[in-house]
Amino acid sequence: MRLLVVGGSGFLGREVCRQAVRAGWSVVGTYHSGAIGVPGVAARRLDVTDRAAVRALVAEVRPDAVVGTPYRYGDWAVTADGAAHVGYAAAEAGVRLVHISSDALHAGRPEPYGDDEPPTPVFPYGAAKAAAETAVRALDPGAALVRTSLIVGEGSKQIQLCHDALAGRASLFTDELRCPVDVTDLAAAVLELVGTDYAGPLNVAGPDPVSRAELGLLVAAASGIDPASMKTSTGAAAGVLRPTDVRLDSSRAAGLLRTRLRGVRELLAG
Q1: On the CB side of 251, how many CA atoms lie within 13 Å of its CA?
Q2: Cα–Cα distance between 9 and 48 in angstroms, integer?
Q3: I want to staple 2 with a disulfide (CB 3.0 to 4.6 A). Which of 26, 36, 39, 60 is the partner?
């Protein structure tokens, strides 16, 4: 199996590369500014906003499958247009595409979201992820669209944010619920999907909905840190326009995949 990971220098992309190499696959990973740093991966610099460059790389590498993870918060050209370019190139080459999407494309509500529910974005990043999905589905109807949540694990920005809040350097919202997923579980699920013909959106997240503040308390307990100094707030008080309660129902993925998607309470309990 020859795999092209677009966004191989990112947190998830690097873990996908790492697991694919361990499985004996031939892996090419792309980066833009940061190194991939995974032994056995052929690293290639790529600007996903350059449609011709994306097409040329896919034609040159001739992968059996592409995993598309490119995003840059606040950058429509990377998050939306870049994903569309990857979708076009994969469809043109006739290769399997697994596109990484996000729970950010939902508006938020008290009930969990199913796999097939249409996007309802309420802020720019969510709109960019929704546009990315729309483009990929139109260009490559056979692509799998992995809708995931906060990605945790060693080196996670989400865990670092919790440590910053516990040290009084940041604030965690009490009204922003997500379903965190471990980066190793998510990468394993993505690689499983490469070998299937599943098409369309699929929720791939953990089973435990927690607020960012609850996540901070779990990190404190796991790290042996007194949470008394942890700063909390609400998104409303901070004036942040972002969905609040976004729970993904990942029961379809749990039934489809061998990979067990562990809850964050289990993960941080060690």
Answers
A1: 4
A2: 13
A3: 26
- DSSP-assigned beta bridge partners for residue 232: 172
232 in Cβ contact with 174 (< 8 Å): yes
Tokens of 257: 């995949």
Taking only the tens place, the pLDDT of each residue in 157-203 is: 999 999 999 999 999 999 999 999 999 999 999 999 999 999 999 99
- Residue 73, token pair as written in the block: 């918060």
Helix or strand (DSSP H, E) at 26: strand 26-31
Q: How far apart are CA 215 and CA 108, in angstroms?
A: 18
Rounded to whole angstroms, the Cα distance separating 162 from 7 reads: 25
Provide the pLDDT for residue 270: 62
Amino acid letter for position 85: H
Question: Which of 27-36, 75-84, 203-212, 253-262 has the lowest average pLDDT?
Answer: 27-36
Q: Are 8 and 17 in contact (CB under 8 A)?
A: yes
3-class DSSP state of 251: helix
DSSP 49: T
Residue pair 178/110 in contact by the 8 Å Cβ criterion: no
Tokens 């309420």 belong to: 122
Classify 27 as helix, strand or coil.
Answer: strand
Q: Which long-range contacts (CB under 8 A, 24 or more apart) does 23-27 make?
A: 23/191, 25/1, 26/1, 26/2, 27/2, 27/3
Question: What is the rounded CA–CA span in Å between residue 236 and residue 101?
Answer: 25
DSSP 113: B
Strand partners, 47: none
CA-based nearest residue to 158, from 233, 77, 218, 237: 218
Sign of CA dihedral 78, 79, 80, 83: positive
